[in-house]
Design goal:
It is a single chain. This protein is of the alpha/beta class and 441 residues long. The chain has two domains: 246 residues, 3-Layer(aba) Sandwich (Aldehyde Dehydrogenase, Chain A, domain 1); 172 residues, Aldehyde Dehydrogenase, Chain A, domain 2, CATH 3.40.309. 43% of the residues lie in helices and 18% in strands. It is built from 16 helices and 16 strands. The strands form four sheets. The chain has a seven-stranded parallel sheet with strand order 10-9-11-8-7-12-13, sandwiched between helices. Helix 16 links the parallel strand 12 and strand 13.
Length: 441
């Protein structure tokens, strides 16, 4: 407890100085970090290789989340530079008015103070989180997972060198260099010094933090994202959106995991959508009704004939491909697959789609493909998610895509922020009240 408490005390002391720092000084720090990460990229990549080589098992999606490469290093640095260009949220006047006694009251944005972030495999979180916290005037304590310890340490050391090289204290960013779970539990008891904690990872991590923290928690959980194909949907549009949402980067929290299709269009939608998914290499776990429609369609047999001709004839790949799709279990509909898998369910219409989404989702990102304004309005009003998409891919739930710069996570709760957590979501508000000998009457 002593070591983590000392880190928290140092962060708390530095947070007061950081909250008063000029925007130009904060930007100077961010640019210095970007430059140092570029200069230290070989060292960072070597540390990442150690983490990758230490992985046990062959979980491709986990390995992808952990992996750093030159393109991802460049993306980190670009994110830092983009954040530096964003408007400074601290001191922004949200509202101003004068009360009946002549007291001028201004509501202004203020820093949260010290933000603790507990996260799992993605090393880029180390940079994204630190950058956003610095820009928003917050000190930050980083607690990454054991699988990325070498990568995170190398990134933190680069940040510290950069911050100190431009004349500021490295204490504005603190790093917990101990992967023992007990240290996390100790950190969660330091509400005296840590103003808010944000978990970034799966439900197990989120639940651990929410059950043990004695400071406010902004829950940033996984995404069991849904897309409903309505009876009025353009099937070609639906296929385009589905493929992007599922396959562009299937290991991230805003990837599509659950597909709902209206029964009214089952005969035309299922064969075409299933064919497109299979051709993209997606494993389909579907309800019995959709499997029956697909297996009896001309497209199923034609697909099999084309795939299994030539060198594929009689191969194991041919046998797997032509086996159709797998029967989904109830568990599949609650599962964030984080890979090239998707669950499919036929529903009676928009009302059942809404009911299923609210039952099975994680309040992250859900969407509808439809041209029926009444159904769209009902869906957007009733689905309980941080981000709701109409005729668009769920892959846009991202700080960069929303124009926030990098993000600290996707909040799946309702207080104090929801959806992508950018700069403004990392601030609080305070009231500045100016009088002239003004007293209450």
């Amino acid at each position: 407890m002593k070591n983590i408490q000392k880190l928290a005390m140092l962060a708390k002391a530095s947070s007061y100085k950081l909250s008063a720092m000029s925007d130009s000084d904060k930007n100077k720090i961010l640019i210095a970090i970007a430059n140092e990460i570029t200069a230290s990229s070989d060292e960072i990549l070597k540390a990442n290789i150690i983490d990758i080589n230490a992985l046990s098992g062959n979980n491709a999606s986990f390995r992808d989340r952990l992996l750093l490469n030159p393109a991802r290093i460049n993306a980190m640095c670009e994110g830092l530079r983009q954040i530096a260009k964003l408007p400074n949220p601290i001191g922004e006047v949200v509202d101003v008015w004068t009360n009946k006694d002549g007291l001028e009251i201004s509501k202004v944005r203020a820093a949260l103070g010290v933000v603790g972030v507990i996260y799992e495999a993605r090393p880029n979180v180390t940079i994204d989180v630190a950058a956003l916290c610095i820009k928003a005037g917050n000190a930050v304590i980083l607690r990454g997972g054991s699988d990325a310890i070498n990568s995170n340490r190398a990134l933190y050391m680069a940040m510290t060198r950069a911050i100190e090289s431009v004349g500021f204290s490295g204490d504005i960013v603190m790093f917990v260099d101990d992967t023992d779970r007990s240290v996390t539990l100790d950190m969660l008891k330091l509400g005296k010094y840590i103003d808010v904690v944000i978990p970034r990872g799966g439900n197990e991590l989120k639940n651990l933090v929410m059950e043990n923290a004695n400071m406010p928690v902004i829950a940033s959980a996984g995404g069991n994202c849904h897309l409903y194909v309505d009876s009025s949907a353009d099937i070609d549009m639906a296929i385009k959106v589905i493929l992007n949402a599922k396959t562009q980067r299937p290991t991230v929290c805003n990837a599509l995991e659950q597909l709902l299709i209206s029964r009214d269009i089952i005969d035309s939608a299922v064969p075409n959508i299933f064919a497109a998914l299979k051709n993209a290499g997606v494993i389909i776990k579907a309800c019995a009704e959709s499997i029956s429609v697909y297996n009896s369609s001309d497209m199923s047999s034609e697909e099999c004939r084309m795939f299994c001709s030539g060198s594929n004839s009689g191969s194991e790949e041919c046998e797997i491909y032509c086996a159709g799709v797998e029967q989904a279990t109830d568990k599949d509909y609650y599962t964030e697959h984080l890979g090239m898998e998707i669950s499919v369910k036929i529903v009676s219409g928009v009302e059942e789609a809404i009911e299923r989404i609210n039952e099975h989702n994680t309040s992250h990102s859900d969407g509808i493909i439809s041209s029926d304004k009444k159904n769209i309005d009902l869906f957007t009003s009733c689905v309980d998610s941080g981000c709701i998409y109409v005729n668009a891919s769920t892959r846009f739930t991202d700080g960069f895509e929303f124009g926030f710069g990098a993000e600290i996570g996707i909040s799946t709760q309702k207080l104090h922020a929801r959806g992508p957590l950018g700069l403004r979501q990392l601030t609080s508000e305070k009231y500045i009240c100016v009088g002239n000998g003004t007293i209450r009457k």
